[in-house]
Structure formats: structure tokens, C-alpha cells
Specification:
By secondary structure, this protein is mainly alpha-helical. It has 17 helices and no strands. 81% of the residues lie in helices and 0% in strands. The termini are far apart.
Length: 421
């Protein structure tokens, strides 16, 4: 009996050590990197299904309109989460919201694996969007909470690079798995599930940077996006920048794979994925290179580059040049990254701590509206007008909007404003 009791008691120290590991909080630097990693992982997850859309459409025989609606379901899920729960982490803390968000993305990942019809895609994409909305608002606010100097430049840079780099890596990694490994409709999601589990375990060790308010509770009621007066000028510029850059992103990610395959005359999933991911990859690189410049300069000059790249993309489609399409994608990506980061940095510097999650939610509402609505409209018009003509029309509109952003950023630059006072 004694031997049995001793054997049964042996796991105790191991359980204590595992429990102690979970309870031991992350170091401040590790916590900051985790918040940036969650932003990147959420965007990584959003890019994973993209290389599979052509497979899904052929397998279940749905049209380009259905494809764009499936794509936009994710963005609408994000919008719903931001409208209903964007400020929850300001009330109850960042850590519980991040845990719920990561678990939600994990569940959506599991739904993708056995998908048997387009209805499964709607369910998985919608749930993924809801969870991503929670993750982005809480993680973006956590970045500024956790930065040792509360430096909006570094925070904006980390957020921007994680967002753009995450989606580019997600598309490319999924493309490689789809083309070269068996079970292409399962393995990309297995990779994502493993990463999500690692992030969830790390989040359990996160010491929450926000102390819940007395009597705070979760309120899932429609909330009007709010921005304090001190941050409204910066929010306007950031919104204009994200409208042009994320409209390009939505148009490119919805129509880009088919366009690149047609222009490059190739059925290679990896080649198509590499071309499509070149835009977010260039955006991430441009933010690293130009991330320390003045925010207004990034928004202004970046928007000019975005407009130029978009014009070249339209020209590439018009003349049928695959090489020009690739070059234009990189130029547009550089402009996209610089413009997005310039607006985001201006906003981060102007937001009071107690309004961070709410303002970031409002910012991402604008972003995901820009991501989804043009994609749906393009899908609806691609049948009567054709893919090339649709891309040209929307491309010209996005280039014109980018020029407006460039002018607004230049007009409201700090030196000009102070000279008027």
C-alpha cells in the first residue's frame, strides 16, 4: 500500500513545476513581443485560406461573387467584434480578451479542416473574423501599454510590420504547403493550430497591463466608435491613409491570385502566392526602412508611391504584362506600408491611455470596411465587366484616393500648422 501511495504521489512535483511555469509572468520585453506576435499571428491566420480559394471554388463549383463574399465574411466578422466588444479590454483587462480571441481563431481553424461545402467556409471565416477583431483591438492597445518608454514610434512600427508581415507570411507558407505536401486542405490549418496553441500558452503567462475597473463587466452592446477630441485630427489622417491602403489590400487579395496566374501564364500555387504576398512583404519592409521618419511624411510620400504603384498595376493589367505587374506590386506595397504606418503612428501618439482600445477599434473598423466593401463590389462587377476591367476601375479610384491622402498629409504637416498659429 505504501509503495502504491508513493508511486501515485510522484507526479506531484512535476505538476507543481508545470503549474509554476504557467503562473510565472513573462518578462516585460517578452510580453511586448508576445503582443506584437499576436497581431502578426492574427493576420497570418487571415492569409492561410487564400491559396486554397481556387481549390474550394473548383471543388464546390461556386462563382467569383460567392468567393468574394466568403472573403468579405471575415472582414464583416472583424467589424462586428469591434463594434460590439472593441472596448472590452479597457474594462476587464487585455489578457482575458486575448485568450478568448486566440481560442476563437483556433476553433475557426478546426472548422476549416473537415469543410465539405461553402457553408463551412462562411462559418469558419465569420468566426475567424470575430476572434480577430478581439485580438487586434486588445493586442494593439497592449503594445503601447507594454512598451518600456510608451514610444508611439516603436509601437506603430511593431504593429505595422507585424500586420503586413503576418499576412504575407501566411499566404506564402500556405502556398508552399498546398503545392508540395499532401492533404493541402488540412496541413496549412494544422500549422496554424500549432502556432495558436503556443501563443495561448504564452498568453497564460502574460501579466495584464490593465487593472480591471471596479464592477467592470462584459457588455456586448453596439458601441458607437468614439475618438477623444485630442485625437480627432490624427484619426482623420489615419483613416484616410488606411482607406486607400487597405482598399488596395482588399482588391489585391481578392482578385490578385487570378490576375497573377493569368498574367504570368502559370498554374503554380507557389508562384501566384509569391506574387500576391509580395505586396504585404514590401509593405513590411518599407515600414522597417522608413519607420523612423516623420509620420506625416510617411503618410504623404507613401501615398504618392501607392498611387504610382496602383497606376502601374492598372497599366500591367491593360497591356497584359506579368513582369510589370510584379514590379508594380512591390512599389504599391512600399507605398502601402509607409502610408499605413504614418497614419497609425500619428494616431498612437495622440490617443490618451484610457481610450486606446476604443480608438484602435474605431481605426480597424475603418480598415476592415475598406478591406471588405471594395472586394465585394469588385466580385459583383467582375462577371458583367470582366476581371481586367473591374481591376482597372477600382485601381484608378484607389490611386485617386491615395493622392487625396498625400495632399491632406502635406497640408496638415506640423510645420505648416504651427506657422498658421
Amino acid at each position: 500500500m505504501t509503495t502504491i501511495e508513493t508511486a501515485e504521489a510522484d507526479p506531484g512535483p512535476d505538476l507543481d513545476r508545470r503549474s509554476s511555469f504557467i503562473r510565472r509572468p513573462l518578462a516585460p520585453r517578452s510580453a511586448y513581443l508576445l503582443a506584437a506576435g499576436i497581431v502578426g499571428l492574427a493576420m497570418f491566420a487571415s492569409g492561410i485560406p487564400s491559396p486554397l480559394y481556387d481549390t474550394y471554388s473548383k471543388l464546390w463549383c461556386f462563382s467569383a461573387v460567392v468567393l468574394t463574399i466568403v472573403y468579405a465574411t471575415y472582414a464583416f466578422g472583424v467589424l462586428v467584434a469591434l463594434l460590439l466588444a472593441g472596448r472590452v479590454s479597457d474594462e476587464i483587462g487585455r489578457r482575458p480578451v486575448l485568450l478568448v480571441a486566440l481560442c476563437g481563431i483556433l476553433v475557426s481553424t478546426i472548422v476549416y479542416m473537415p469543410a465539405q461545402s461553402v457553408a463551412w467556409l462562411y462559418a469558419a471565416r465569420g468566426l475567424q473574423g470575430l476572434a480577430t477583431g478581439l485580438a487586434l483591438s486588445a493586442a494593439s492597445a497592449s503594445l503601447l501599454d507594454l512598451h518600456p518608454r510608451r514610444d508611439p514610434i516603436s509601437v506603430g512600427l511593431a504593429n505595422g510590420v507585424a500586420s503586413a508581415g503576418g499576412i504575407g507570411l501566411g499566404i506564402f507558407a500556405s502556398s508552399v504547403l498546398v503545392q508540395y505536401l499532401p492533404a493541402p486542405r488540412v496541413l496549412p490549418y494544422v500549422l496554424l493550430a500549432v502556432l495558436l496553441l503556443i501563443a495561448t500558452i504564452a498568453t497564460l503567462r502574460l501579466q495584464d497591463p490593465v487593472t480591471p475597473r471596479p464592477g467592470a463587466r462584459i457588455r456586448l452592446t453596439p458601441q458607437r466608435p468614439s475618438v477623444p477630441p485630442s485625437g480627432r485630427r490624427a484619426f482623420l489622417l489615419a483613416s484616410l491613409a488606411v482607406l486607400s491602403s487597405w482598399s488596395l489590400n482588399g482588391l489585391y487579395l481578392s482578385l490578385g491570385p487570378e490576375l497573377s496566374a493569368n498574367l504570368l501564364h502559370s498554374n503554380s500555387v507557389v508562384l501566384s502566392g509569391l506574387v500576391v504576398s509580395s505586396l504585404p512583404a514590401a509593405a513590411a519592409l518599407s515600414q522597417v526602412v522608413f519607420g523612423r521618419g516623420a509620420p506625416w511624411a510617411g503618410a504623404s510620400y507613401g501615398s504618392l508611391a501607392l498611387a504610382a504603384g496602383m497606376g502601374l498595376l492598372v497599366a500591367a493589367v491593360a497591356v497584359g504584362s506579368g513582369a510589370l505587374f510584379v514590379v508594380a506590386s512591390v512599389i504599391a506595397g512600399f507605398g502601402f506600408g509607409a502610408a499605413f504606418l504614418g497614419g497609425l503612428r500619428s494616431l498612437s501618439a495622440a490617443v490618451p491611455p484610457e481610450h486606446r482600445a476604443a480608438v484602435m477599434s474605431a481605426f480597424y473598423i475603418v480598415a476592415y470596411g475598406a478591406l471588405s466593401l471594395p472586394a465585394i463590389a469588385a466580385g459583383l462587377l467582375s462577371s458583367p465587366l470582366g476581371l481586367n476591367r473591374t481591376f482597372e476601375i477600382f485601381g484608378v479610384a484607389i490611386a485617386a484616393l491615395a493622392l487625396v491622402v498625400a495632399g491632406e498629409a502635406w497640408r496638415t504637416r506640423p510645420g505648416r500648422l504651427s506657422s498658421r498659429q
